[in-house]
Target: C-type lectin domain-containing protein
Amino acid sequence: MQEKKKGEPSHETSAYERSAEEIICLDMLKEEIMHSSNYIARANTVSKNCIYSFFCVFLLYFNCIVGTIIKDIFALNVKAYDDTYEDEKSLHISKVEALIHCSMECLNQNRCVSYFYNGVSNTCILHEDPFTYTIRSQSGAGWKFYITIITDSGRCKPDFFYYRYLDLCYKFGVAINATDSTITTICSEPNEDLVRVDSEERQSYIETITADIGLVYKIAICIQGTSMLNSSHQWTFNDGTRMPYSKWAKGQPDANGTFIRMFRSYKYKWYSLVDDNMCSYICEYKYNDSI
Ligand SMILES: *[C@@H]1O[C@H](CO)[C@@H](O)[C@H](O)[C@H]1NC(C)=O
Ligand SMILES: *[C@@H]1O[C@H](CO)[C@@H](O)[C@H](O)[C@H]1NC(C)=O
Ligand SMILES: *[C@@H]1O[C@H](CO)[C@@H](O)[C@H](O)[C@H]1NC(C)=O
Model:
């Protein structure tokens, strides 16, 4: 990995340090935030956060042993996004004293999924977008990007994003050749399914987080829906329940099927095309009431 400049301590990570590297963790039980980023943990002569970082390294180490890590919230620094940021469509922009306060602001805002923080200007920008399929239009020295990973009580999985505002735990999938048979092979882990777009808010959230997906996949996005469960072939979710919301294009649905294609190039309208065609997809991790 490439070494960064701007006064950061160098990273000669041992196995122990790697486990705590660039992670901010929150102990939800104590409702306080603690830094365990390698950067802050080592900058103990300059940072007033060093007391937190020390505790967090300790806490993480402890958690790894006793396996209580799922009770914590983490924010992971995505190094590939260093020195870029986005200030359009943000939830909130503020000046803060330190990274810890930016993290706290994100935690306290249930639409917050990620944040950019600039340690030079102490600027904090909160977003509801994980920036997987949206571009970061700005660049500048000192910006770092953090994505939250909230696995509290098993509600969400570590490799999924959690949008607390809509209680949506989701993951993006690659392009597949979508047919009734291939669609059953994706999102097939326990409690996973294609994303259920059951409200205007979910529809518009998906539109937000995939705004630039066309740069990667110029194809449809597959979402949940089937006409094969209802005796009169009406479209339902995969558990047979009625869809409270839909955004079918004019004349749609005009075919039976086991998934729905959402076309970004047609204002994200829904289509029930039967012909073999590619789509990328979004998986949802369903809440399991029995936990
Ligand atoms: C998808 O699969 C079908 C059947 O296997 C094939 O005929 C079709 O060409 C494939 N489409 C693409 C875009 O690969
Ligand atoms: C399924 O079909 C029945 C009639 O066969 C209809 O009364 C019912 O409303 C349909 N259910 C849904 C969820 O669309
Ligand atoms: C769905 O399948 C049923 C049964 O084969 C058929 O009667 C119906 O016309 C089909 N619907 C569409 C829109 O193709």
About this structure: Residues 1-72 have pLDDT under 50 and may be disordered.
